[in-house]
Amino acid sequence: MTNILTQIIKTINNKKYIQPFIITSKNKNKFYESIKLIAKYILCIKCLKDKCIIQNLCLSCKKFNYDQHPDYYEIISNENNIIQLNQIKKMLNFLQFKPVISKYKIIVINSINNMNAKACNSMLKTLEEPKNNILFLIIAQNKNINKTILERCYVIDIKEKNIHKTTFTKLNILKKYLLDTQCNYTDKLYINFFYKMEKTEQLNMLYFVLSSLMINENNKRKQMYLFKLTTTLNYYKFLLKENYSLDIRLITNLIKINLKY
Ligand SMILES: [Zn+2]
Questions:
Q1: What pLDDT shows up at residue 30?
Q2: Cis (ω within 30 of 0) for the bond into 34?
Q3: Range of the domain at 190
Q4: Cα 102 to averaged position of ligand 1 atoms, centre (Å)
Q5: How many other CB atoms are found less than 10 A from the CB of residue 37?
Q6: Which residues of the chain register pLDDT less than 50?
Q7: How far is CA 77 from CA 29, 85, 116, 181, in A?
Q8: What percent of the chain lies above the pLDDT cut of 70?
Q9: Which SS3 state, helix, strand or coil, does residue 48 take?
Q10: 106 alpha carbon to ligand 1 midpoint, in Å?
Q11: Does residue 63 contact residue 70 with C-beta atoms inside 8 Å?
């Protein structure tokens, strides 16, 4: 995910006008949340965006958190799984004015494969005149879409293979983060992602990292200690199932403190 963000930021910083992005992924719904997070990150007006998008410190992040950001617009397919012309027209109204809070206006479309012909034509006209303060993040399940639209866009392919690789990378980053005593871990965005994930998934990831640390630990005493930590995580999983509210940030910090010794 960080790679996609880097790619987007590079492109929007270097150009006089911003080319629309098409991001293809088979799993469009799983991906949609990630794209939203990227949008929030780009819209954020604080310097320390990593921190801000999690804690909602700036006006932009606050508004985004309540789905009230005046510079953010979504086009989602309707109950019949279609994106229609009137949805594009509403978006054109939204684009008439300059950004209110942020540097850009961002439009997320999920997904362009569901756009009917009339909507596509109207969309094309908008894409023909790219601007320097409008960013399109268009999700597609495959490249089976209007050819001219495809030509106008910068396409980022998320391959299934890469997704597996990403999971592996994510676990490694989490491991570094847990072991890092001075908080200078490099990939802060991944850690932000981690804190945004579902709690069960967060616990699973923590469990996985701790187990792998335990298996690779030669010191018996430390190994035992890691074992205890994994057992505690199992207990947390149980609590979660029983609908107890858990503070994962607190749990993660406790693990971090424990791993210091
Ligand atoms: Zn912010």
A1: 65
A2: no
A3: 165-259
A4: 10
A5: 19
A6: none
A7: 12, 11, 10, 46
A8: 90
A9: coil
A10: 15
A11: yes
The structure tokens listed for 44 are 């954020």
Report the DSSP beta bridge partners of residue 72: 106
What pLDDT is recorded for position 165?
A: 55
Q: Please check whether residues 134 and 33 belong to one and the same domain.
A: yes
Q: At what angle do helices 220-241 and 248-259 cross, to 10 degrees?
A: 170
- Six-digit token pair at 261? 């010794």
Tokens, residue 210: 């701790």
Compute, in angstroms, the gap from residue 192 CA to the centroid of ligand 1: 13
pTM exceeding the 0.70 threshold for the entire prediction = no
- How far is the centre of ligand 1, averaged over its atoms, from the C-alpha of 24 (Å)? 27
Which amino acid does the sequence have at 65? N
Which pLDDT belongs to residue 56? 85
CA of 47 to the centre of ligand 1 (A): 8
Note whether 27 and 115 are same-domain residues. yes
CA 59 – ligand 1 centroid, Å: 7
Cα–Cα distance, 187 to 169 (Å, whole number): 10
Question: Residues for the chain: how many in total?
Answer: 261
The single-letter DSSP state of residue 103 is S
Number of domains in the chain: 2
170 with 141, same domain? no
Q: What type of residue sits at position 116?
A: N
pLDDT, tens digit, for every residue of 176-231?
888 886 666 566 777 777 888 889 889 988 988 888 888 777 787 888 888 888 88
